[in-house]
TrEMBL record:
Transmembrane segments: none annotated. Coiled coil: none annotated. It comes from Prauserella rugosa. Gene3D superfamilies: Isopropylmalate Dehydrogenase. Residues 5-346 form the Isopropylmalate dehydrogenase-like domain. Its cofactor is Mg(2+); Mn(2+). Pfam families: Iso_dh. This is 3-isopropylmalate dehydrogenase. GO terms for molecular function: magnesium ion binding; NAD binding; oxidoreductase activity, acting on the CH-OH group of donors, NAD or NADP as acceptor. SUPFAM superfamilies: Isocitrate/Isopropylmalate dehydrogenase-like. Keywords: Manganese, Metal-binding, NAD, Oxidoreductase. NCBIfam families: PRK03437.1 (NF002898). InterPro entries: ICDH/IPMDH, IsoCit/isopropylmalate_DH_CS, IsoPropMal-DH-like_dom. It comes from the Bacteria.
């Protein structure tokens, strides 16, 4: 029987509740499709940091490294200064585990309302691939004379051919397995050095994918095109910070943070990939049971696809979409059910949803991802 080892960082705030829902969904599809998932809880996040003073200890990192994939709920707490967990845990894991691309699907499911007029399931199914390890996130720079009128802050942006090529290569493979269109999103007219490198890499790699049509959009123009004409896009590849910003815009047009999933993906399979909802720990609603678990169950579906479990992945996605379509609202008490109840409903649906209603259009992200998945054990030798 196929078997996977999943490390689980439930984290803080709403993280544990939405992660429990995601695991219930994984359990349902694993039983249905005949594989097992062994989970290991890894205690990281704000609570752990406040208790131990360590953001990411060596033992936890080694434990994570031994797994096939990592499921993350959310980390964060108002008591922890900004940047400590984001840089010390999330960014550190992305780099340590060579999770060189961040995959953010922007798909509007039938029955889910978009706040943007004219956006419907037929024109909203794109994937943002964000370079995940460098750009302005590389972290170099400094602040001299802080707190004085002479203060100078430098925040360096790093763009390497190697990381850019890895993100672009993955994006072309994804586009070739989907609708065959790749858009580079950058700001080549102002960030001329980094922009030139990105464009050269897209041209060079693109020459090997003649079946993929190429397009370019400046990041500011993207903020107009994405809500007004999402159907223009299939796979959008972009720099780390631009990707962070435009994928939140994508989350909004697809129904909000409660339904936005992501994968920190290691395309080579040399270390575990990490799957997490786009939302954070949402301290304002933590403990209220009003968090929508769909972003977490959809992230778990991405995880299953990343492991090569295509049927389980599309079934969990379809079950989530089917439950979402019944909700009177996508967040808060207006959803009409608590986080745990929704998790149970999604898991029950995943156990018996009719395969015929599993909406998996040819070239969907999950199919493409499952097709590209390296077998983790083999890839790591
Ligand atoms: P963090 O500092 O951990 O990023 P945050 O509150 O700044 O937390 P988010 O957690 O992303 O950022 O939350 C932004 C807003 O969206 C909050 O008002 C939160 O309640 C709401 N929200 C986030 N996730 C969900 C969800 N799954 N269901 C419903 N509402 C959500």
């Amino acid at each position: 029987m196929r078997s996977y080892r999943l490390a689980v960082i439930a984290g803080d705030g709403i993280g544990p509740d939405v992660t429990a829902a995601a695991l219930a969904g994984v359990e349902a599809v694993s039983r249905r499709f005949g594989f097992t998932v062994e989970t290991t809880d890894v205690d990281l996040g704000a609570e752990a940091y406040l208790r131990t003073g360590e953001v990411l200890d060596e033992a936890s990192q080694s434990t994570l490294a031994e797994h096939d994939a990592i499921l993350l709920g959310a980390v964060g707490d108002p008591r922890v200064p900004p940047g400590v967990l984001e840089r010390g845990l999330i960014v550190a894991l992305r780099i340590a585990f060579a999770q060189s691309v961040n995959i953010r699907p922007v798909r509007l499911y039938p029955g889910v309302p978009s706040p943007v007029a004219g956006v419907h399931p037929g024109n909203c199914d794109l994937v943002i691939v964000r370079e995940n390890t460098e750009g302005l996130y590389a972290g170099g720079g400094g602040l001299t004379h802080p707190g004085t009128p002479q203060a100078v802050a430098l925040q360096n942006s790093v763009t390497t051919a190697a990381a850019t090529t890895e993100a672009v290569e993955f994006s072309f493979r994804l586009a070739a397995a989907r609708r065959g269109r790749l858009t580079l999103c950058h700001k080549t007219n102002i960030l001329t050095h980094a922009g030139r490198l990105w464009q050269e890499v897209v041209d060079e790699v693109g020459a090997r994918y003649p079946q993929v049509e190429r397009d370019y959009v400046h990041v500011d123009a993207m903020c107009q095109h994405l809500p007004l004409d999402p159907g223009r896009f299939d796979v959008v590849v972009t720099d780390n910070l631009f990707g962070d910003i435009i994928s939140d815009l994508g989350a909004t047009i697809q129904g909000g943070l409660g339904v936005a999933a992501s994968a920190n993906h290691n395309p080579r399979g040399s270390a575990p990939s990490m799957y997490e909802p786009v939302h954070g720990s949402a301290p304002d609603i933590a403990g209220t049971g009003t968090a929508n678990p769909a972003a977490a169950t959809l992230s778990a579906a991405l995880c299953l696809a990343g492991l090569g479990e295509h049927d389980a992945a599309v079934t969990l996605e379809a079950a989530t979409a089917s439950v979402l379509a019944e909700l009177p609202a996508l967040a808060g008490t207006a959803m009409g059910a608590r986080t745990g109840e929704l998790g149970e409903r999604i898991a029950a649906r995943a156990a018996d949803i009719d395969a015929a209603v599993v909406a998996d259009p040819a070239g969907s992200l999950l199919s493409a991802l499952a097709g590209l998945a390296p077998a983790p054990a083999e890839a790591r030798g």
